[in-house]
Structure formats: C-alpha cells, structure tokens
Amino acid sequence: MNVRDSICVGIFWTLLQLSYGQSMAPLPAPEGPSNDDQSTDPALFCLISLLNAGKAIDQGIAYVLLFVALAITHLFRLISFVR
Fold first, then answer.
1. What is the pLDDT along the chain (83 residues), one digit of tens a residue?
2. Is residue 23 part of a domain?
3. What is the pLDDT of residue 39?
4. CA 50, CA 44: separation in Å to the nearest integer?
5. Which long-range contacts (CB under 8 A, 24 or more apart) does 55-59 make?
6. Which residues, if any, are the signal sequence (predicted)?
7. Is 0.70 topped by the overall pTM?
8. How far, CA to CA in Å, does 27 sit from each of 12, 53, 58?
9. Interatomic CA distance for residues 78 and 65, integer angstroms
10. Residue-level pLDDT at 68
C-alpha cells in the first residue's frame, strides 16, 4: 500500500466517522383543529403547516444549489480539458 492509498483510506475513514454525527430531529406534527375546539381557525392550521414545510423547502433549495455548483465545476473541468 503506497502513500496515496493510505491517504485515501484515511480520508474515507474520517468521512465515515463523521457520518455518525448528530442527526436532525423530526419536525413536530402541525397542530390542527380538533373536534373538541370549534374556535380554531382553518387559516391558522394552514399557516402552521406552511411554516413546518419551510425547512423542507430550504433543504430542497440547498440541494438545487449544490447540483448547480457541481454542474459548474464539471463545466470548468471540461473546458480546461478541451484546451
């Protein structure tokens, strides 16, 4: 095993250990109108649902930006390879 292989194994092992870190907690269930309380506004329930969905939307935007950065990186590599 040469030095390059040792470095690759070390990096892979480090990334594997980082994957055991703290995971995200699940979102709490939205509090909707109950049968006992008739005064709860349905618009409030909709607003609470949208606020809970905001984290998923942020994560989706982050994935799109990550994909765009990856595409740009590959385009630069392709351009430098053609030259």
1. 688 888 888 888 887 777 666 666 777 777 765 555 545 677 777 777 766 666 777 788 889 999 999 999 999 888 887 76
2. no
3. 52
4. 10
5. 55/27
6. 1-21
7. no
8. 31, 9, 14
9. 20
10. 94
Alpha-carbon distance values, 43 to 18, 23, 32 (Å)? 42, 32, 10
Encoded tokens for 23? 């995971």
Number of domains in the chain: 1
Token pair in block for residue 73: 């990186």
Q: Which domain holds residue 67?
A: 42-83
d(CA 54, CA 47): 11
Phi, psi (deg, nearest 5) at residue 76:
-65, -40
Residue that has been written with the tokens 């909709």 in this structure: 46
Is 51 inside any structural domain?
yes
81 within domain boundaries: yes
